[in-house]
From TrEMBL:
This is Transcription factor MYB1. It comes from the Eukaryota. One of its GO terms (molecular function) is DNA binding. Residues 6-50, 51-101 form the Myb-like domain. Transmembrane segments: none annotated. It comes from Portulaca grandiflora. GO terms for cellular component: nucleus.
DNA sequence: AACCGTATCAACCGCGTCGTG
DNA sequence: TCACGACGCGGTTGATACGGT
């Protein structure tokens, strides 16, 4: 362990102090508890180890799948990810990711050429109002010593008034899209999938159903129900990890 | 048994954010 | 508006555990 390990006596003092005075006011906790620890250490020990209902032991397959989906959505915002995994701490999730899952990502990095540039329409931006906007992005794939990163810069707002000459099975028009959504990835996130998703097409039907066709993909995508509207926006249901609503239908 | 390399994870550190005066 | 302190987060460290030789 890096640093000085906590003793059982220190744990007892901290636990009793927080049970008496409650969480928060961490700058007062060391003095109140009679601990020769800084407030940061006290807070960390409580949140990562002493707090009730902390789940110990290995992550289940369901938890791992959830982490992968949430990491795709949130990135390295470990506390946000952990808040959706009952009993797990941000430190636990971060450690698990760094020890196990990041390597799975790294193992697939060779599938994209370094410095490759691609331009695609995506649904990717998420703001605090749970709104995801459609944009056209230019991806510049850079290979560092350890991983591939995309320095994606939004270059224009999506224009769905420019249908591509592809015909859907129902006779409608297919529009090229990329859906950066959790449920698209029922396997570990990897760069190969990102590349393949460029070959995804969508068609919005009159009854509000969006048909999604996939090229060169070997996993299923659930049917997405949408409503007609004027906004080029959609929302996430963060508990169900699913789309909720309206999406660029004014363009068809 | 001893050694070595790797994996694990608790703890520390630095920095950004926020509230307050 | 600015300065300051507290909080919270993510990156990193390093001690220990573990497995292989």
């Amino acid at each position: 362990m890096g640093g000085v390990a906590w003793t059982e006596e220190e744990d007892r003092l901290l636990r009793e102090c927080i049970q008496r005075y409650g969480e928060g006011k961490w700058h007062r906790i060391p003095l109140l508890a009679g601990l020769n620890r800084c407030r940061k250490s006290c807070r960390l020990r409580w949140f990562n180890y002493l707090r009730p209902n902390i789940k110990r032991g290995s992550f289940t397959n369901e938890e791992v799948e959830h982490i992968i989906k949430l990491h795709k959505l949130y990135g390295n915002r470990w506390s946000l990810i952990a808040s959706r995994l009952p009993g797990r701490t941000a430190n636990d999730v971060k450690n698990y990711w760094n020890c196990h899952l990041s390597k799975r990502l790294l193992n697939n990095a060779h599938l994209i050429e370094p410095n490759e540039t691609t331009k695609n329409t995506t649904i990717i931006a998420q703001d605090k109002n749970n709104t995801i906007e459609c944009e056209s992005y230019e991806y510049n794939w850079k290979r560092s010593s350890e991983t591939i990163q995309n320095n994606n810069n939004p270059i224009e707002t999506i224009s769905m008034h420019d249908p591509k000459p592809n015909q859907a099975s129902n006779g409608g028009t297919l529009l090229p899209i990329e859906i950066m959504s959790p449920f698209v990835r029922d396997e570990a996130y990897n760069d190969q999938m990102v590349a393949q998703e460029y070959n995804k097409y969508a068609c919005i039907e009159e009854n509000g159903t969006m048909e999604v066709l996939q090229r060169d993909l070997d996993f299923e995508l659930e049917e997405i129900k949408i409503t007609t509207g004027e906004h080029s926006k959609c929302k996430w249901d963060f508990d169900e990890l699913a789309f909720d609503l309206e999406l660029w239908t004014n363009s068809l």
